[in-house]
Amino acid sequence: MRSIQHIFLATGIFLLLGNASHAKGSEQPLYVISPNGIYEFVVIPSEETADIIQFSVIQRGETVIKPSTLGLLAKEMNFSGPFSVEKVERRSVDQEWTTSFGERSVIPDQYNEMTVHLKGGTVLINLIVRTYNEGVAFAYEIPEQSGIKQLRIDDELVSYRFAQDHKVWSTPPRMRNKLTAQGRYRKIPLTQLEAGAERPLVVECGEGRIIALAEAALVDYARISYTSDPEMPLAILSSLDGRMSNAKQNKVSGAMHGGRSASAKASVKLPFRSPWRVIMMAESPGELLENNYLILNLNEPNAIKDTSWIMPGKVLRETTLTTEGGLRAIDFVAANGMQYVHFDAGWYGHEMDESSDATTITLDPKRSKGPFDIEKIMTHAKERGVRVMLYVNRRALEKQLDELLPLYQEWGISGIKFGFVRVGDQDATAWMHEAIRKAAAHKMVVNVHDEYRPTGYSRIYPNLLTQEGIRGDEESVSNEHTLITMFTRMLAGAADNTVCYYNSRVDEKMGSHASQLAKTVCLFSPLQFLFWYDRPAESPDKIDGLWGDTKHIGNEPELEFFRQVPTTWDETRVLTAEIAEIGVIARRKETDWYVGGINGPTARDVAVDFSFLEPGVTYQATLYTDDENIKTRTRVKINSQELTAASRITIPLKANNGFAMRLEKQL
User: Fold this and answer.
1) In whole angstroms, what is the distance from residue 185 CA to residue 171 CA?
2) Which residue from 584, 555, 386, 368 is spatially nearest to 483, judged by alpha carbons?
3) Which residue of 402, 411, 509, 638 has the smallest Cβ count within 10 Å?
4) Average pLDDT, the chain
5) Count H helices, E strands: the chain?
6) pLDDT score for 426
7) Segment 620-635, tens digit of pLDDT
8) Where in the chain is the domain with CATH 2.60.40.1180?
9) Does residue 215 contact residue 278 with C-beta atoms inside 8 Å?
10) How deeply is 666 buried, as exposed, middle or buried, from its count of CB atoms within 10 A (0-12, 13-18, 19+)?
11) For residue 531, what is the enclosing H or E element?
12) E strands along 147-255, which residues?
């Protein structure tokens, strides 16, 4: 049993769930098998210790996760065991649902479910297990009992045991003034995993076996993170984030720091069901990504009856914060197949200043000398059919949200980017999702920035179109890092990568312009920022330098790809996937396909098989590749040819290059 010293508690509750039970008084295992028969979640009473119940996970008859434990510590109830199985309930679900905001428009939702009712003394708790064709998930629920209606949970500790010291793809450890969800990934042995590793956590379990430990349906609870288990060899331990006290925020990076409580990490009303603890499973990284809708399936259905006002689209960040800059940005968006102009930090004062008032137009002089006439800008946007988003830092949001939303709706604003939000503890999590619900009531889309990572809430409130929680292009990431992101962070859902097309960092650090084009396909986001630092040719100069190397957008021929590419999809196929090495993804919108390919540090010939195309149909393919002989700023070559489902082509790619392709169905 885990020591009291390790969990920093003087008293507590401990519930251990793992390879587990059958019926009351029985020692037989309980199996839940996925609809396709590939995955099994096994619950068996331990023969060694009467008060321990364990779980294991099997793929094609081979144990991937050895007998493992779930520990729950709280104050008002004593789950010290032993536990008996009082009842087992089973059901199967075979359905599908549709969405206009995802990586596919029709999402299968098939699973077998088992609920195990457990009793230890006078304490009742239920373990709910689901097995999908895409992996397995479990949650626990605590009924109201013994007159207890409110429960303080000190921690939840899940120890996932493995047979070997597998490699994991981890974000950095939690450190003062450091961002973890936006940090650099490392491939390390699981025994070297340090506290605070983000979810999803990808574990390479050998040939044909790859999993991702993840979380779903986190709405009003503390998030989990991972570390190596100090008390169990070859195990990964998850625990809850404690409540933050004396919180301060770095005014440059936005990183929150302060003390975290080691007890009372969550307070819940009974009956209570925990978020889902998810084990995404596949035979390859590409299959994991194709099946990432598992996270959405573990959330409740859409709560917004009329979603017609929710508009995905492509976004231009206006960098000058001037009236003239805003008008020219609106004209550019209207003329180039885009949907939004976004005004970022500085329009209502210094974003990190507690006194800044987001109900006013009060320019931060370090960002802009003005003028900034929002009324004139909004009138022009309405005339051109362009939507406008505003950035608001969490300081103003937390103080003024109920005042801001109706005001912005009156102005005609269509969306808000939440900046430098608090994440992790229950209070931050609950506030965030309440704010998203309030935004929906005022018909505003939301883009949550900085450390927030999704757990599927966009299924319930699809006005949450995207979020950060990614080390994106504004961090000058290499293609190698983007290729890690594609098959780790992107398992959680949409990510706002912020393409920096003309910025000098593209040539100096980030690969190539063709791989920038490819990112709009490879990195899913219903709000796709295309020109993070760039401004239209007619826009005034920006000379403050606070937003880096800003350049005017040109008229290079390959910009036609940006004008055409959608931001939501009807179908997604991963054609090639090697984490950190190479990634090729094909996505369909209606009858046309788009393909993005990103190459890492090794030159290679990439074979593309087009058997995903509709048989018997010809497609006009336009291919965009890097070519130093092209005499433009961006040196992107464009070729066209006809392709069918029987076609196979090979694309030579230099190190850190990429390609993009549009395939138009010929009628």
Assistant:
1) 5
2) 584
3) 402
4) 92
5) 12, 35
6) 97
7) 999 999 999 999 999 9
8) 572-665
9) yes
10) exposed
11) strand 527-531
12) 150-161, 167-170, 186-189, 201-204, 210-216, 224-228, 235-240, 244-249
Residue type, 631: K
42-56, 371-385, 427-441, 497-511: which range is least confident on average? 42-56
CB 107 within 8 A of CB 295: no
Cα gap 463→101, rounded to integer Å = 9
pLDDT on residue 84:
82
Rg of the chain (C-alpha set) = 25
Q: Where are the alpha helices (DSSP H) in 336-425?
A: 374-384, 394-411
DSSP state of 91: E
Q: Which two tokens stand for residue 460?
A: 């319930």
Helix (H, G, I), strand (E, B) or coil at 367: coil
Residues 6+ apart with CB under 8 A from 172: 178, 180, 183, 184, 186, 194, 196
Confirm if 129 and 90 have CB atoms less than 8 A apart: no
pLDDT, average across residues 325-352: 97
Q: Which CATH superfamily is domain 572-665 in?
A: Golgi alpha-mannosidase II (2.60.40.1180)
Residue 298 — φ and ψ, nearest 5°?
-85, 5
pLDDT at 18 over 60: no
pLDDT of residue 247: 62
| Average pLDDT of the segment spanning 381-385 | 98
| H or E element in which residue 415 lies | strand 415-419
CA nearest 333: which of 592, 547, 530, 541? 530
Interval 284-293 mean pLDDT? 98
HSE of 531, CA atoms in CB hemisphere, 13 A: 27
**pLDDT band, very low/low/confident/very high, at 508 (cuts 50, 70, 90):** confident
Q: How confident is the model at residue 50 (pLDDT cuts 50, 70, 90)?
A: very low
The fold adopted by the segment(s) 4-297 is: Beta-galactosidase; Chain A, domain 5 (2.70.98)
C-beta of residue 240 within 8 angstroms of C-beta of residue 263: no
CA angle 12, 13, 17 (to 5 degrees): 145
Question: Measured between alpha carbons, how far is 398 from 432 in angstroms, rounded to an integer?
Answer: 9
Confidence grade of residue 66 (pLDDT, cut at 50, 70, 90):
very high
Query: Is residue 264 classed as helix, strand or coil in its secondary structure?
Result: coil
Direct distance between the N- and C-terminal alpha carbons of the chain, in angstroms, rounded to an integer: 67
CB 38 within 8 A of CB 61: no
Structure tokens at 326: 């805003």
Residue from 329, 340, 325, 316 nearest 370 by CA: 325
CA gap 376, 380 in Å, rounded: 6
Q: Give the tokens for residue 425.
A: 């503890």
Min mean pLDDT across 39-48, 155-164, 325-334 is at 39-48
Residue 635 region by backbone torsions, left for phi larger than 0, else alpha for psi between -120 and 50, else beta: left
Rounded to whole angstroms, the Cα distance separating 449 from 254 reads 10
Q: Which of 602, 597, 613 is nearest to 645 (CA)?
A: 613
Q: Is the pLDDT of residue 655 over 70?
A: yes
- The distance from CA 646 to its chain's CA centroid, rounded to whole angstroms, is 35
Where do the CATH 2.70.98.10 domains begin and end in the chain? 4-297
Q: How far is CA 480 from CA 168, 476, 505, 510, 634, in A?
A: 16, 12, 15, 9, 20
236-275: pLDDT as tens digits: 999 999 987 666 666 555 665 566 777 899 999 999 999 9
For residues 123 and 79, the answer to whether their CB atoms sit within 8 Å is yes
What pLDDT digit, counting tens, does each position of 637-651 carry?
Answer: 999 999 999 999 999
